[in-house]
């Protein structure tokens, strides 16, 4: 009898443990990777290798320490122009009689920054800081793409496009400005109450260095987002400008330098004059206002026409703002790219570094799969190829000899930019402006 009782007790315990084991929740298994995240992990190593290898070649080449470029001095933009500005700015004043100083007061910040780098001369420190800006942009793009499960098309465009432009980007302070503009656009997409104010503040900081980032404000959503961003931009811009103006005299000397700008030989307005040189036109080029510009008959008229052409371009932007639905997150970067393209193609100057701006904005657009600007980004990348062929490879033939090969290359580049501006505006309109429905016929 005791044996039977013990057996029954053992069976009851076994049965109870089996029930408890069956009812206990199974240990959580790690979540399976989504196809999108798996693709991102697979695509990242080639992207990182491409960025690292291109920069491993281009940055030393800009520093003139690469075995592939030999010796020689740094790019004249750094060794002469920027070094001269640094000497004046570090002495406590903005350049007053230097016609090449045509920038708002905030441009003093990237020019003075190399002086804070220990152990390096101005030129090498400037290029190192530009390389750090490029690295920061790459990290920003990859971080946003990987965190939100998006495409790596944006980081790829930045990696390849900047490499196509050769060493030029690291010899200009446009990398600094573009980094701020891209940061502003990425910040605006954050889901925080402070995102609008931060976007406006960073945009203003970039705009007081070079004016064009103010165009980022074109795509802000109606109502509170516009009021918040524009107010933050106004306060920040005014505060930074006032601080610099109080710290150093001649802060607004750049305004008078801008008044005398003519038609730079790489702009859209220069195209007819390159052909006219072969048809008996009596004009020529001259080193003027910090660039090479055409001088002679009809130049002033074309210069006025280029300035006037900005009126319908920005009038269209205002009309688009009135008609468009700007609630989507993709609208802000898409509109920024459209506005900047319109600014570039109607400008009297198209310097090679303008392509850095367009690449940066296009890369931010490509972070979103629903962007309207994907084919525009490809046109910009193609324009980068012709830009590098133009400067520095074919530049002397364009300027001195009016070579037909150089002229054809410039036409190709500028026509690509015109096509990009037209396509960008067209796709932005179609992607944001609701179609008007035909009104119903009156009932009888």
UniProtKB/TrEMBL annotation:
Its main location: membrane. Residues 1-22 form the signal peptide. Coiled coil: none annotated. InterPro entries: GT87. It is a multi-pass membrane protein. GO terms for cellular component: plasma membrane. It comes from the Bacteria. GO terms for molecular function: hexosyltransferase activity. It is found in: Cell membrane. The keyword Transmembrane applies. The chain crosses the membrane at residues 122-144, 156-173, 193-217, 229-248, 298-319, 376-398, 410-429. Keywords: Cell membrane, Membrane, Signal, Transferase, Transmembrane, Transmembrane helix. Belongs to the glycosyltransferase 87 family. This is Membrane protein. It comes from Streptomyces paromomycinus.
